[in-house]
């Protein structure tokens, strides 16, 4: 898929949530309360529930999306833009791509995302990201 087509497909929020969940499961979700690694997925609440102690972890918890009310799709849009443009994206560009009304939450988010990219081995990040994108967005598009 062309980068622009990918960006368009990322805007499907339901698919973005599925893919983000997939990305988290690849890395493994760890319970903050008991350290348990096994979870159920509560689809209606969009939360992981620890099989040991029943503690719940939201989809966003412990990720760059924690504490923000931004759509999960922004994670994929932002990451795609960062990887394509060699980590140099402006908030204005991101705002234009997402159509988001407010500048401040985007500023916070893009900075967190850049930090996330810096802290994660580029090849690991690229591999995980690419595979998750292939699994959820590219494949989905072919079957639908
Ligand atoms: Zn637990």
UniProtKB/TrEMBL annotation:
A Pfam family it matches: Zn_ribbon_IS1595
InterPro entries: Transposase_Zn_ribbon
All residue ranges annotated as the Transposase zinc-ribbon domain in the record: 11-54
Record-given protein name: Transposase zinc-ribbon domain-containing protein
Source organism of the structure: Ravibacter arvi
Biological classification of the source: Bacteria, Pseudomonadati, Bacteroidota, Cytophagia, Cytophagales
């Amino acid at each position: 898929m062309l980068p622009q087509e990918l960006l368009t497909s990322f805007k499907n929020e339901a698919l973005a949530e599925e893919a983000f969940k997939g990305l988290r499961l690849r890395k493994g979700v760890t319970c903050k309360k008991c350290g348990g690694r096994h979870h159920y997925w509560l689809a209606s609440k969009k939360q992981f529930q620890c099989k040991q102690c029943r503690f719940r972890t939201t989809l966003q918890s412990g990720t760059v999306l924690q504490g923000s009310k931004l759509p999960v799709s922004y994670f994929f849009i932002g990451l795609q833009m960062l990887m394509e443009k060699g980590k140099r994206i402006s908030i204005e560009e991101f705002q234009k791509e997402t159509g988001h009304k407010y500048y401040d939450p985007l500023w916070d988010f893009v900075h967190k995302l850049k930090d996330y990219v810096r802290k994660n081995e580029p090849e690991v990040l690229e591999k995980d990201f690419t595979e998750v994108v292939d699994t959820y967005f590219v494949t989905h598009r072919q079957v639908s």
